[in-house]
Amino acid sequence: MSGSAEAASAGQAVSGPASRGRSVRYRQAAALLLTLALFGWLDRAIGRHEDGGPYRQEIPRPIRAVRRAPEARHIVLGCSTSKWFAPALVAGWGLPAGQVVDAHMSDCLQTCTLAEARALQSVGRHFETATFGVNLFEYCEEYRERRSMQEVDLLPLSYTLDLARVYLHSEDPLRYAGGWLLNHASVVYGNTMWLQRHARKSWFGSEGLHNAWFERVPPPPRKRREVLGCDYVAADRDFGLAATRGALRALRSLADRVQLVLLPDRDYASDSEAARRGRELFTAEHRALSAQMKRVQVIDLLQPQLLDPKLFRDGAHFNRDGVRRATSALSESVRELPLASRR
Amino acid sequence: MSFTTSAFFAFCIVLFSGYALLRGRARSLFLLLASAVFYGSWDIRFLALLVGSVFVDFFVALAVARAEGARRKRLLLISISFNLGVLAFFKYAGFFVESAAALLTRLGVTTSAPVLEIVLPVGISFYTFQTLSYTVDVYRKRLPPSRDLLDFALYVMFFPQLVAGPIERAERLLPQMQAVSREPWRPDLTGLGLIALGLFKKIVLADGVRSYAVALSAPDRAYPAALWFATYAFAFQIYWDFSGYSDIAVGLARLLGVDLMSNFRAPYAATGPSDFWRRWHISLSEWLRDYLYIPLGGNRGGELRTQRNLFLTMLLGGLWHGAAWHFVLWGAFHGLLLVVARALARRWPRTLQLAERRWFRPVQSLAFFHVTCLGWALFRAPTLDACVQAWHKLLLFEGLQLRAWLGHLATLKELRPAALWFGVFVLAWLFQYLQPRSSKELVAQLWRWPLLPRALAVASLAYLAMLLAPLSPPAFIYFQF
Q1: Contact B222 A42 (CB under 8 A)
Q2: Is residue B192 within 8 Å of residue B458, measured between CB atoms?
Q3: Among A210, A242, B186, B217, which one is most buried in terms of CB atoms within 10 A?
Q4: CA–CA separation, B284 vs B18, rounded Å?
């Protein structure tokens, strides 16, 4: 009896530090898990907040629109510059409105369209036509690493290589890879525009104080507007074209036919020599791109009646008059195109 | 690829995965390759210069160790000429040509000076000083030369401290680089705390206050009170920016199992110029002491020579920061402070006894902080004219005009953020005064907390930094040097 007690106490003496070590490790693991859970909850709470940023709130909208239109045979994708496409297609083809679903998304550039098309494909949707617009401004977008939030939310993981193939064409692939990883790590990483523009400004002051805060004679107040401009010729077009190519590939899997609509920008709508050169390069490069792909058709809206800077409300979006003219031009262009559903 | 970009985050994932998987020389080679990728991401051409520097100093040091007599000195001169020549060409050529042309024009001589547009390789001032100190130490027989090119290349190119220091000595860092391939990887997790602290300092604090420091670039248009506010803002911006960088560098190194030196120890708690330079950019001030001040004669040769040596050392220290006269002026200002403080201490030694009294320390420290701020105005002002205008207002020749400025801020609805930042400055100074420690010491203290609050503190700092990171993060200030 006493021998076994001694053995037990000797066993305790031997296993004591080891079990204490194990318990410390368990406590450490529990504390880390608790911290991670807390930050995960906080992250999601900020992400779900109604002011949590316009971009995040926008993501589910087009997907819901597609779900609600099971009869739709034609789909419109792209960013806010494509928001008038659906009525134009309905008018051009003379279809009932329910046949065309508007799945454009605010700030959805080419890689986001790639992700959206793959997301819809993975839920088994297929369309007769997919219409997708690009403009020159999208080739100058600087915040793509943050914009990968839409790609992270939408793209099924099995298509990640599609995205990697695009990122490899950028000047700094690591930047995009890092943005993608951080968007996976936190649901608000790509959505901090709100924090930047509102919270940080109200707590710490605006980064764009335009120096008035210290000046005895401040400059006259100016209305600050986002400038949407792009030097297409100097832009990182290799990356932009790779992104468009990736989007077109995904769209070809989603639809029988893909219509690539080339949209003008205000900077390139003038009749200057530089604007003309930029337009020609943009058109030529996109025609060459579509020529390499079957079932992709270019609809060129860089037409004389739309090449007027007065038709734009900012650098990239048409104003009301511009939309009216562009709708008519797109309707005219698609009227010629055959539709299987009409045959 | 700056530490605050998403690209660096992706880089770290690849780096630490590879580092954990590899063993022996493959690990050293991988770390060297990663450092080359990190440095080459700025401009691949600069990498050739860096590699050139590695080769020159490696082989020259070997030759110095073998040589005897006058040949040793000649070999050392090769290294010094190469390193300082590279620095002079890339950093100072344009400055000296322009200054000479301006001087000749003032003297009435018309010249057509060539316009030199030389791109400054990032981190050149840091790594040339580091390699130079190695060769000098070998020459002084303080250090045997490295016989392994890979270890030596890692010593020069170790990416955490390559572009903005700390400027490490070979006797400290070289053995640790040798250990990379010889010993198992033992990451020091306090590095995570340092990285989170550094990111918070840079992204939330330094980048947040940046827009207030701009007043120093146009002092002629500013209210004097606004200029003082801008000077405080810049004093803390440059501290948070540079010490934030150093914290991240030290933290990354610790995760790789390497211990780098502390570069800052609560500099605004300093009570005088000598104390300040023992706390601010410690690796540079120690370098200047050992490789410039002492070779100039140090405190040997009488009081006048000592003061001359102090002044010259600081003057050149100012020029090291950048090829512009306002940096020289900033160096001269600090040189003068050291000379005056030394003279006062000799003339009135009882003043020093007063400084040791407890009640006098905070007064002295706060007063010296304001003196330091006058120096920062010279550092930040873009031209000599702007320096004069800034000092004219900071020394209150036009009064303070506080009420007028506050009224102006209220009209712009900027009073609340300015008040908040002022509160942050006060707290930051108080924190430094009450906790006059380096970040390494602070994080060591944090690591004594229980795990949960410690993990929460580190995660909160990192999370805030991630959320508040600007869309285009500004570069670290010291990258330009």
Answers
A1: no
A2: yes
A3: A242
A4: 32
**Cβ B421–A182 below 8 Å, yes or no?**
no
ipTM over 0.90: no
Q: In this structure, which amino acid lies at residue A59?
A: I
Query: Which residue type sits at A64?
Result: R
The predicted-structure confidence for B270-303, as pLDDT tens digits, reads as follows: 999 999 999 999 999 999 999 999 999 988 888 8
Q: Which of residues 141-180 of A touch B (CB under 8 A)?
A: 142-143, 145-146, 172, 174-175, 177-179
Query: What angle is formed at CA A244 by the lines to CA A192 and CA A110, rounded to 5 degrees?
Result: 20
Residues 153-182 of B with CB under 8 A from A: none
pLDDT at residue A59, rounded to an integer: 86
B6 and A178 within 8 Å at the Cβ level: the answer is: yes
Which residue among B404, B414, B471 places its CB closest to the CB of A209? B414
**Hey, are the CB atoms on A211 and B6 less than 8 Å from each other?**
no
Sequence-distant (6+) residues with CB within 8 A of B202 are B3, B4, B240, B241, B244, B245, B248, B465, B476
Q: By C-alpha distance, which of B209, B258, B203 is closest to B8?
A: B203
Mean pLDDT of all residues belonging to chain B: 91
Distance of CA A51 to the CA centre of its chain: 19
Tens digits of per-residue pLDDT, B207-256?
888 888 888 988 988 899 999 999 999 999 999 999 999 999 999 999 99
C-alpha to C-alpha distance for B396 and B390, rounded to whole angstroms: 10
From chain B residues 330-389, the ones with a CB under 8 A of any chain A CB are: none
Write down the pTM of the prediction: 0.84
Tell me what the mean pLDDT of segment B147-158 comes to.
Answer: 96
Pick out chain A residues at pLDDT < 50: 1-5, 7-8, 10-11, 13, 343
Nearest-angstrom CA–CA distance, B217 and A14: 69
Partner residue opposite B414 with nearest CB, options A175, A181, A205? A205
- Count residue pairs from A and B with Cβ separation < 8 A: 130
pLDDT at position A17 is 66
Cα distance from B97 to chain A (closest Cα, Å)? 33
- Chain A neighbours among B 220-259 (CB < 8 Å)? 221-223, 226-227, 229-230
Concatenated DSSP letters for B48-72?
HHHHHHHHHHHHHHHHHHH--THHH
Q: Which of A204, A187, A203, A251 lies closest to A47, judged by CA?
A: A187
Strand segments (E) across A117-248: 127-135
Looking at residue A202, its pLDDT comes to 61
Q: Which residues of B are catalytically annotated? A: 321
Per-state percent for chain B, helix, strand, coil, to nearest 5: 75, 0, 25
In B222-301, alpha helices (H) = 224-255, 273-277, 282-288, 294-296
CA–CA–CA angle B150, B245, A36 (5° rounding): 100
Q: Is A28's Cβ below 8 Å from some Cβ in B?
A: yes
Which residues of chain B does A201 touch, with a Cβ-Cβ cutoff of 8 Å? 417
Contact assessment for residue A151 and residue A164, using Cβ atoms and an 8 Å cutoff: no
**Cβ-based neighbour number of residue A72 at 10 Å:** 22
- The enclosing H or E element of A297 equals strand A296-300
**Does the beta-carbon distance from A182 to B9 stay under 8 Å?**
yes
Among B222, B412, B466, the residue with its CB nearest the CB of A189 is B466
Q: List all residues 6 or more positions away from B2 whose beta carbon is below 8 Å from its beta carbon.
A: B8, B473, B475, B476, B479
Decide: B265 and B279 in contact? Cβ < 8 Å. yes
Higher pLDDT, B222 or B97: B222
- What distance lies between CA A128 and its chain's CA centroid? 23
Crossing angle of helices B124-139/B44-66, nearest 10°? 10
Share of residues in chain B with pLDDT > 70 (%): 97
- What are B315-374's pLDDT values in tens digits? 999 999 988 899 999 999 999 999 999 998 888 877 666 666 778 889 999 999 999 999
